[in-house]
Amino acid sequence: MIFGLETGKPSEDELKFVTNTNAKKYIMSLPEKPRNSVATFITYENPLALDLLDKMLQIDPKNRITAEETLKHKYFESLHDPNDEPKFVGTLDFKFE
Q: How far apart are CA 66 and CA 14, in angstroms?
């Protein structure tokens, strides 16, 4: 994903999760550009795949599709088996980042 180009420049609200001041400053310095669907720059015949990519390429993790939602997406309909999809129970620690 190239910020400010294909996917558009994220808003300040979408960048609330970014804690690195320099990273946020850089992203905010990029030229304004509206968000585009991946279908505008990726040629692919399956609209479900493009829809899934749009949902995965959200900068804000709160707006991004979850793994569980991804498995239920129509793109994976023929592969989805709720009886064979274990769920992670626990917490992840990203303090090292």
A: 17
